[in-house]
Amino acid sequence: MSTSQTPRTWFLTGASRGLGAHWAEAILARGDRLAATARDARALRPLVGRYGDQVLALELDVTDTAAVADAVRTAELRFGGIDVLVNNAGHMLRGALEEATDEQIRAQIDVNYLGAVWTTRAVLPGMRERRAGHIMQVSSIGGLVAYPSLGIYQASKWALEAMSQSLAAEVAAYGIHVTLIEPIMFPTDLASASPQARQDPAYQHAREALYAAAQAGGFVPGDPAATADAVLALADAPNPPLRVLFGTGGLDALRTEFGGRLAALEEWDHLSRLAQGKTDGV
Q1: Rounded CA separation 60/57 (Å)
Q2: Residues 168-185: b if buried by 16+ CB within 10 A, e if exposed
Q3: Catalytic residue among 140, 156, 157, 164
Q4: What is the pLDDT of residue 215?
Q5: Is 153 annotated in the active site?
Q6: Which pLDDT tens digit goes with each residue over 22-38?
Q7: Is 139 a catalytic residue?
Q8: Active site residue 157
Q9: CA separation for the pair 89, 92 (Å, rounded)
Q10: Which of 60, 63, 16, 11 is nearest to 189 (CA)?
Q11: pTM of this structure
């Protein structure tokens, strides 16, 4: 049962597969209520069969703003409000910038970034009115670093990172928390279920570099089921973090990444000063 005095109500996108499926099961198993969304609501029938009225199964394309608003409104009417929003729906386009089609690039941004924007905007009025709520954005270690052949996917996550950090400052006064969840490496069907760009031989070196980077990072695949306990603990935290890594090995990768950024900026600080021009006090 939830550690709160009354069961929480969650709104979870991408609830039918991958990490989302584990989270949906854990949320319901402890007695909380769940508005679970998927592109095909039939995939959610097993949850409804096991948990009945405790779960609201909704078919939802997160890129459809009207459908998002309607789904949130339906969940609020059914359960009386949404306590926790988890923006988990997404896919991972793999391919160099030149390899991806215009449609694939737009779809990546529409689903991973704008989809989260629309659901977040839809729940905010109710959370502000109640002066409480927790918005969890599923980003990625790729929201903090960038590797070859994943630039478009990671751009969608970098956008999510910036929006969410700004949002956290905007809504803190209303008692609303925002957390970016940064999964590192978990064996799910994310890659196999995602559209992939054509492979141009000109970018074979980029695909090899991506593989080499993963090997050099020393990332060890984590247990997807274990992430459910982490999500529940995050929801129970009275002062949750803005960012949290799911999995191990990420801290070392980020120390290297951010250290390298600062070193390069310092190396070229003379150019920064040249660009500043002659101003008082410099």
Answers
A1: 10
A2: beebeeeebbbbbbbbbb
A3: 157
A4: 65
A5: yes
A6: 999 999 999 999 999 99
A7: yes
A8: yes
A9: 11
A10: 16
A11: 0.93
**Residue 250: Cβ within 10 Å count:** 20
Are 32 and 9 in contact by the 8 Å Cβ rule? The answer is yes
Instruction: Say which of 16, 113, 139, 149 is annotated catalytic.
Output: 139
Q: Which residue of the set 113, 153, 156, 203 is catalytic?
A: 153
Residues 6+ apart with CB under 8 A from 215: none
What does the pLDDT look like over 46-95, one tens digit per residue? 999 999 999 999 999 999 999 999 999 999 999 999 999 999 999 999 99
